[in-house]
Amino acid sequence: MKKQWYFINSGPCSSAYNMALDEALLDWHSEGEIPPVIRFYEWNPATLSIGYFQQVHKDINLQAVQNQNLGFIRRPTGGRAVLHDQELTYSVIVSESYPNMPETVTEAYRVISEGILQGFRQLGLNAYFSVPETKEQLDDLKKPKSAVCFDASSWYELVVEGKKVAGSAQTRQKGVILQHGAILLDLNEELLLSVFNFDSDEAKERMRKKLPEKAVAMNQFVDIPFTIEQCVNAFSKGFEEALNIELTPYEINEKQQQYVEQLMQKKYLTDAWNFKK
Q1: Domains and CATH numbers, the chain
Q2: N or C: which end of the chain has fewer CB within 10 A?
């Protein structure tokens, strides 16, 4: 008998709502109110999210974020800055003690990301996991060269034709794993470059040249662009297959909605949270 997980497709939401709902799902799951959850969502407006440990003023060109009417948010997860623009975002909420869930972050990441891998395959893309092999890649893992998410190797990176197609981050709180990540449909390289601080114009140019070699959007591989709906279907099936589960659609109730809104007000809409480092 397959285990039942909840499935939520939130569609386009504000950045504060997206982060608050992910955290709320973690809380509810830790309290045993809900089973594990797979959630998909988008961002309105397009948003720059930074990792929990990142220093805003060092890495980010806030003026450019403001000038282009982009959202800005600090995630509860680690990792580096991600521009959530033409993408589908997924989140997985599951307890650390879930059957066969590895204890280490790296191995749990591989197990959860298998759902994304299978989703790409559902869409006919030849995706696989890459593991850092060279000393340079391993050094890059320990000490990233830049603030840009798609500029670095990480364990079990999802790649299509050698290029990174999805970036994920994880946190563990209250005995629960929250992993969320961005699946790129299209990539606006100029917009991405505009929101980071670079030491010099040369450094920015180097990054501009490197980006197409490192990061790629799914629609670059096909003649007819993928739709969000197609992706939601494919990655839902991918998770069901990889984790041997059955997804049951779920909508949050009014009381839960109020909890999410309180989290937004108290945390994700505050400068104390977003600019704290």
Answers
A1: 3-274 (3.30.930.10)
A2: N
Residue type, 233: N
Question: For residue 140, what are the contacts with CB-CB under 8 A and spacing of at least 6?
Answer: 132, 152, 153
> Which residues are CB-contacts of 190 (< 8 A; sequence separation ≥ 6)?
none
Which residues are part of the catalytic machinery? 149
Nearest 5°: the CA angle 229, 231, 237 is 105
Q: What is the DSSP letter of 147?
A: S
Note the pLDDT of residue 155.
62
Q: How many CB atoms lie within 10 A of CB 39?
A: 20
DSSP character string of 80-121: -BEEESSEEEEEEEEETTSTT--SSHHHHHHHHHHHHHHHHH
Lowest mean pLDDT among 15-19, 69-73, 94-98, 129-133: 129-133
Strand, coil or helix: what is 57? helix
Strand partners of residue 196: 60
Q: What is this structure's pTM?
A: 0.90
In degrees and rounded to multiples of 5, residue 262 shows phi and psi of -65, -45
